[in-house]
Every structure is written in structure tokens, then in C-alpha cells.
Design brief:
By secondary structure, this protein is an alpha/beta fold. It has helices spanning about 25-45, 55-60, 75-80, 95-100, 100-115, 135-145, 165-170, 175-185, 200, and strands spanning about 1-5, 15-20, 45-55, 85-90, 115-120, 150, 155, 160, 185-195, 210, 225-230, 235, 245-250. About 30% of the residues lie in helices and about 25% in strands.
């Protein structure tokens, strides 16, 4: 997957654009991206993920504390690459971008920068000033400007719509099995093992302190089983070495 830079994302060929924040790359996102990939294959056209950073809620909602991400930037990019996407465009979500009139967003970014032939978005995707742009608007402008639009319906798990907000709520309450169902994989926490105070070792139970990205969502307090991966190897064991990168897939 190639990372594109700036607003002149692709000038040499048209693309299929998959639009969204994609925090978590959960099963709903995966259904959307599958549709984009199928369209790209049928058209012989590369698929470009168009996403945003920082999380739009951090700017628009004026939250007291930032939104904790299920998949910080590097993790999200790796997951999207694993799905087989061709291009990755991370748009800086600034106040200027947030205040762009919806039609100007379509003209400047989808038509001029990307030259889209097909746009794929979720049923609840909004864009432009005050989120006034809707999937229905994209369909109408697609008909006018000559690109196709696919709107992906809600994806359900357990009879409820899968969303990043729902997954965060599961993790906050320690319900990692339900989060797993919505993500389509175990939730992982990763980072570098750092030296602590050695209290666990002092009572015969050595532990590992993992320094995770500060914007990463941490599950609620509790006791979890974890499959620890170090250097690509999965082991059920306490991590003892320091200054190495580890990933823990969690369940109870």
C-alpha cells in the first residue's frame, strides 16, 4: 500500500475512493472496504483509502479529553495494508477542512485531487461544513459529475450496529469477547516493555510494563488472558525482556 502525500493525491489515473475515519477497522469497515476492492478489481482501478487525522471528534466536539483510538495511526495503516488496499491518503483534519462546503469538498478533493470513478462510504458518513454533506448528496453529485457511489448499509453483530463507539464501550467495561466479535479479531495492546518498580518480582510474580501509544484505547481495569507476541512469535508467558516491542491479544 502506497502512502500518498498532499492534496494532489493522484493525477495519472482514476481511483476508487473508500471514505471514512476507519478507527478500529472493524467488521463494518471491512464490509465497506471489501466493496471498494471488488469495484477496483472490476474496473481495473486502484483503491484509495481516504481517512482523517486527528479524529474529527477531537476538533468538532471540543471534548475535555481526546477520543481514545482503537487503532492509532500506524496500527490502522498496517491493518488497511493487510486488506490489500493500493493507496492510503490521510487528510489532516483541520478547522479549515471541517468548514469546507460539502460540494467544494467533492470538487477539490474527490474530483481534482483523486479523479474518482467510484466512491464507497458508510450509511452514516458525513462531510463538509457542520457535517451537512451526506451519502445522498454524494449520489446526486456523482450523477452530475460522472462517478458512481456505493453506500454501505449498517453492519450488525448481535442485532446491533457495529461502530467504533460501541466497541469502546465494550472495552471500557472489560467485555473483550463482544469487542472481538465486532472487530473480527482479538483486540490488541502493543508497545515497548519498560522497567517498573520491580514490585511484582519482589513477591515472586514478575510482570511486564508495556508503554503503549498515549492515544490508544486501554480496556477497563480487570484480569485478562493475553497471547503475547514478540518478534512474530506467539507465547502464553510473562514478558521479561525490556526495550522490545510486544503485542498482546486480549480475552477473558
Amino acid at each position: 500500500m502506497r502512502i500518498v502525500q498532499g492534496t494532489e493525491a493522484e493525477k495519472d489515473e482514476q481511483v476508487v475512493a473508500a471514505l471514512g475515519v476507519f478507527d478500529g477497522v472493524h467488521t463494518g469497515h471491512q464490509a465497506l472496504l471489501k466493496e471498494a476492492l471488488q469495484s477496483g478489481k472490476s474496473l481495473g482501478t486502484p483503491v484509495c483509502v481516504v481517512t482523517f487525522h486527528p479524529h474529527p471528534k477531537n476538533l468538532l466536539m471540543k471534548a475535555r479529553s481526546p477520543v481514545s483510538l482503537l487503532t492509532p495511526r500506524d496500527e490502522k495503516r498496517e491493518l488497511l495494508s493487510d486488506l490489500g488496499l493500493d493507496l492510503y491518503w490521510e487528510m489532516p483534519f483541520t478547522r479549515q477542512l471541517a468548514q469546507t462546503p460539502p460540494l467544494d469538498f467533492v470538487r477539490k478533493y474527490l474530483l481534482e485531487a483523486l479523479r474518482v470513478s467510484h466512491v464507497v462510504c458508510g450509511f452514516n458518513f458525513t462531510f463538509g461544513d457542520r457535517g451537512r454533506g451526506t451519502p445522498a448528496d454524494l449520489v446526486n453529485w456523482g450523477n452530475e459529475y460522472g462517478f458512481k457511489v456505493s453506500v454501505i448499509p449498517p453492519h450488525l453483530s448481535g442485532g446491533e450496529v457495529v461502530s467504533s463507539t460501541r466497541i469502546r464501550a465494550y472495552l471500557e467495561s472489560g467485555r473483550v469477547e463482544q469487542a472481538w466479535e465486532c472487530l473480527g479479531r482479538p483486540y490488541c495492546v502493543y508497545g515497548t516493555v519498560e522497567h517498573g518498580d520491580g514490585r511484582g518480582r519482589g513477591i515472586g510474580i514478575p510482570t511486564s510494563n508495556i508503554l503503549v501509544p498515549e492515544d490508544k484505547m486501554i480496556p477497563g481495569n480487570g484480569v485478562y488472558a493475553a497471547l503475547v507476541r514478540a518478534g512474530g512469535t506467539g507465547v502464553f508467558w510473562r514478558v521479561k525482556r525490556c526495550k522490545h516491542r510486544y503485542q498482546a491479544d486480549l480475552w477473558r
